[in-house]
Each structure stands twice: as C-alpha cells, then as structure tokens.
Amino acid sequence: MPSAAFFERLGVFVDPGFLDPQFCESYLMEAQTCPCEPARLTRYGEAVTDNSRRKTGQLQISQTTAQSIRERLIAIKPRLETHFQVQLQDLEPPSCYRYQVGDFFGLHRDVIDPSLPGSKFEKNRLVSLIIFLNSMSAEPSPQTFGGGALALYGLLDDARGQNYGFPLEPEQGQLIAFRSDLWHEVKPVTHGERFSIVSWFV
C-alpha cells in the first residue's frame, strides 16, 4: 500500500504519532466493555441504520476519554489551518467506532448538499479527521486487524485517477485529515477488530 509520505504529497495531512501507544492501549481496554450500538447514516435529515451502505458499531466512551481526545484535536487546529489554507471554527464531538469482521463503510463524502435536510455540522464540514487506535496486519493477532483499509478518491488532478481509491494502511496512533468533500470508503474487515475515532472541523 502507498506510504504516509505518498498521501502527504497529495494533500492529505498525516501525523503518525498523534496518540501514544499507552493512550491507545488504555482506549482499547475501555472499548471492550463500553456500550456499543449500530452506527447510523443521515438520510433526508433523519438518522437511519442501513447495513447495505454502512455496517459498524459506534462506541459510547467515557466523557473523560472523549474530552481528552477533543483537547488533542483542538491543539492541532493551527497546523490544519496552515495545511489546508482554511480558517476553522468549531469541532464536532469525536465519534468512536468498532469495525468487526465484515463491517465496512461504503463510498461517501462527509459533507452534504446545503439544500438537503441535515445538521449545520454536516452542511459545513471542511476537514475530516480519523485517528487509528490499532494497526492493520496480514496475520491475525489480538491487537490488530485485517482488511479495513481507508480508500481515498480524487487525490489526483488527472481525470483518469479520479475514480481510483488509494488505500491507506492504518497504524496505531496515526491521525489523518483530509477535505470533507473528498470521496472515501472503509473496506470490509477480514479479521480482528478495527478501532478508530472520527471528528470534523467546520
């Protein structure tokens, strides 16, 4: 798979060590016991479950963990503004997800048409943020997962490359950020469990 440096050259923001291993391990322990419910999609202003387009679990982590993540994301706001040449205002509350075997998120964008029903956040998202809590590996192990690559589309100006999704291999503690109007998807997980945190700046 392409390296992190490859994605940086194409405009993606990459921070390989955004979260330290100790934080990630603590989070993974919490994730094993906290409540989890099916993640939903927004359709015409309503949150719905649609396993044909998205199948993953959303974790209800503690307020302490959520606040710690939020503070770390707010701290990198100036770096993101410089990288994307935009002025960012607010940060959506971070969402935490668990992808089990067969779970995926089909091709989508994180910002919706302003003319459609939806929240002010969904209509005004500028930068999408994803933090990976564990790593991908070819061989099964207790702390890693297989499959579950994040594929980003539209990174090349060349029209021939617009429909190709470059797969990014998640690594523990890594944060990536990209424009919220970029098409992307999460490939199905083939073994283990994939844990990630997602948020957006508007």
Quote the distance from N terminus to C terminus.
Answer: 30 Å
Q: Which descriptor suits the 3D outline?
A: globular
Kindly provide the radius of gyration, computed on alpha-carbon positions and rounded to a whole number of angstroms.
16 Å
Taking strands numbered 1, 2, ... along the chain, how are they ordered across the largest sheet? 1-13-9-16-7-6-2
Overall structural class, as computed from helix and strand content, comes to alpha+beta
How many beta strands in the DSSP annotation?
16
The pLDDT mean sits at: 93
Residue windows where pLDDT falls under 50 for at least 5 positions? none
User: SSE order in H/E notation?
Assistant: HEHEEEEEHHEEHEEEEEEEE
Strand content: 25-35%
The largest sheet, given as strand count, sense and whether it forms a barrel, is: 7 strands, antiparallel
Number of helices: 5
Tell me roughly what share of residues is in helical segments: 10-25%
Please tell me about this protein's structure.
There is one protein chain. The protein has 202 residues and is of the alpha+beta class. 21% of the residues lie in helices and 31% in strands. The relative contact order is 0.25. The mean pLDDT is 93.
List keywords for this structure.
single chain, alpha+beta, seven-stranded antiparallel β-sheet, 5 helices, 21% helix, globular
